[in-house]
Design goal:
By secondary structure, the protein is of the alpha+beta class. It is built from 14 helices and 10 strands. The chain has a 6-stranded mixed beta barrel. The relative contact order is 0.19.
Length: 414
């Protein structure tokens, strides 16, 4: 189909001035539509990738890549587990933890997750030590009974740094007055803000020995948290560590901790890709009307070429090439515009906010006040390939119709 003669004539038709200017107008509209569709698709997918990356980093600021916990009770040999993990080159950090639901009483009462951590090892597996807005991370010392609260939780309790709160643990203790819940007064020594309400509203962090004393766990901990070189191999690395530790352990990785959230993000990104692909499809199929009108306009030329010996395949190649060139021009310009916009979407948003005098994502309402963008080569290639295939499909019917032109019929009224 694509012979040198087809390419030569197709390029000649593309450069030639047309008697029917409406065909040129429709052709420009088709190119512009493909440009806008491709640019919009690349930009939107990049912004959605940016949101996913931003939210994932915030989640992993509190959730470790992998966790090994005991099936029945806690983990007693946790120092050996931490040592084994540190010897593995795939592991960047390991830290023990104690975690349990508790009740916290300040000016109000609220449920919360109490997490006992080792202040020296915890920065290896989470970012919470870098997210303090008040107080000092080093205030978590054994026996001091200090607590660091999430910002939203502290606001609900009505407490600040230096105030006292009471933690009620689910463990019961027998006293002469009867069975009473275990409780302990803690001093608020810090407030953190991760940027996700799930943690800022419900997390209280204490020193691991203080947590174990409150829960009467002795030398046991709830488990060991891991941070890995490759977080996508979290399950494999954690399973290998659990096997070397011996005994029965339950393994969780970061995808299981928020599986519904990540599934929802992937589904939403796929749906947006399909919806925006329809824009590219509509623009690409505008080529059909352009080429059909061009075939009608070039009936005499087609008849002469057929009379001179051009095969139907040659004629078909002429119009496929012409339609593809128009499509490729739109795709290339769309990719350039889409990549530039995706790389500068934050600056564009600020520019528009300055012109129109409004704030698209106010910092006092949204945790993310800027449009993050994560431009990925595979997304650009997927959009480019999709647009090219749609443009190719759009050229087939007009080209096939041109190839079926009969010279005698076409020249009857010339």
């Amino acid at each position: 189909m694509f012979r040198p003669l087809s390419a030569f004539i197709g390029l000649r038709y593309l450069r030639a001035k047309r008697r029917n200017h409406f065909i040129s107008f429709i052709s420009m509209v088709s190119i512009l539509g493909i440009l806008l569709g491709v640019a919009a698709l690349i930009t939107v997918i990049s912004v959605m990738n940016g949101f996913e990356t931003e939210l994932r980093s915030r989640i992993l600021g509190m959730v470790s890549h992998a966790t090994v916990v005991g099936v029945e009770g806690g983990v007693r040999n946790w120092p050996e587990a931490v040592k084994l993990a540190r010897e593995d080159q795939r592991v960047r950090g390991a830290a023990p933890f104690v975690e349990r639901e508790v009740m916290i009483q300040g000016l109000r009462v609220s449920g919360a997750f109490m997490r006992g951590v080792d202040p020296k090892l915890e920065p290896e597996v989470s970012e919470v030590s870098n997210k303090l807005v008040q107080g000092d991370w080093d205030s978590l010392q054994a026996g001091e009974f200090n607590v660091i609260l999430g910002r939203e939780l502290a606001l609900w309790l009505g407490v600040g740094v230096g105030d006292s709160v009471t933690l009620f643990a689910p463990a019961l203790r027998a006293t002469p007055a009867g069975v009473l819940p275990t409780l302990r007064q803690f001093t608020v020594s810090g407030i953190f803000e991760i940027g996700m309400a799930e943690y800022d509203r419900s997390m209280a962090i204490v020193e691991i020995n203080d947590a174990a004393r409150l829960l009467r766990m002795g030398d046991e901990v709830s488990g060991v948290r891991l941070k890995l070189e490759d977080m996508f191999r979290a399950w494999i690395v954690a399973a290998d560590l659990a096997e070397r530790m011996g005994g029965l352990y339950r393994i969780r990785d970061w995808t299981q901790e928020h599986s519904n959230f990540f599934r929802a993000v992937q589904t939403e990104r796929m749906v947006m890709f399909v919806i925006l692909s329809l824009i590219v499809a509509v623009a690409a199929f505008n080529l059909v009307s352009t080429l059909v009108m061009l075939v009608t306009d070039k009936q005499a030329d087609i008849a002469i070429l057929r009379t001179l010996g051009a095969t139907p395949g040659t004629i078909m190649g002429v119009f496929v090439i012409q339609g593809l060139i128009s499509g490729v021009i739109g795709i290339v310009l769309g990719v350039i515009c889409g990549v530039l916009l995706a790389m500068n979407v934050t600056n564009v948003m600020r520019f528009l906010e300055g012109i129109f005098g409004f704030q698209l994502m106010p910092a006092d309402i949204y945790y993310i006040s800027e449009l993050p963008s994560d431009l990925r080569l595979e997304n650009v290639l997927a959009v480019t390939g999709l647009a090219f295939v749609l443009a190719l499909i759009a050229t087939l019917y007009p080209a096939w119709r041109a190839a079926r032109t009969q010279p005698a019929e076409a020249l009857r009224y010339e």
